[in-house]
Amino acid sequence: MLPSFERSLRAARRSPRTIDNYVSTAKAFISWLEEEGRPTEVGLIKREFVESWLLILEDRGNTPSTIASRYRCLQQLFRWLEVEEEIDVSPMAKMRPPAIPEATTEVLSGDDQRRLLKVCEGRTFIDRRDLAILSMFLDSGLRLSELADLKLGDVDLDSGAALVMGKGSRPRVARFGSVVGRNLDRYLRSRSSHAGAESEWLWLRADNGQRFRAAGIAKMVKNRGEAAELPGLHPHVFRHTFAHRFRSNGGSEGDLMLLGGWRSRSMIDRYGKAAAADRAAEAHRAYSPVDNL
Question: Where is pLDDT greater, at 191 or 293?
């Protein structure tokens, strides 16, 4: 049934990454069933098979979030089989998703951000490109894939807007401020005389003018982080930092959801919890009951 399931996902215009997650999860489950000598016919798969597999994933050292993701992917497969009337009831019909313990997610302080941007000061093509990328990450809340996939025509410096393709192939307009606009302008002026200037892609490599892809951007972030004494820095920290700073500066949840491309308030809560204690401390300093007697 997997080829049919995959064709159905493509027809529903699910993103390539989503399709890969669903199909790879199903294949991993099938491989385990075969290893265990259990049936792989859809009508013979039982709830206890799924529960046993999830426990195996845990024993193999998979994180709770990875196990929960596998659960959701497999759940979609069985739901599709129900809709297609290949099975009467999903074996996961009465299962509850695995719990994911709350984890503290780091955010960058103001000093961290200033230090990071400072290591990109310079007039070389690389400095101007990296400064534009890092400042845009911090100011827009873009995901790595969204930023890496930007084309020249997607960015409007005058209005401070970038058209991006978000998760689930949902387009949205991301925003950036005047400082980022200035950094982008300086990069674009340097880019105009660089190899590959005619490329449609916004970000270019320094050595050959080819497209600067997500993997290269992630490596650049790590290297710049080390130079700024921020070891282990990765692009997703910027998205958490954006959400935290936006809310700390008075931005509303609704605006944050729209700007960041979040569809659920639960995701806003997840991103905001990382620095909720900091925001509570700031609020207490402003609204201390005794200080305000």
Answer: 191
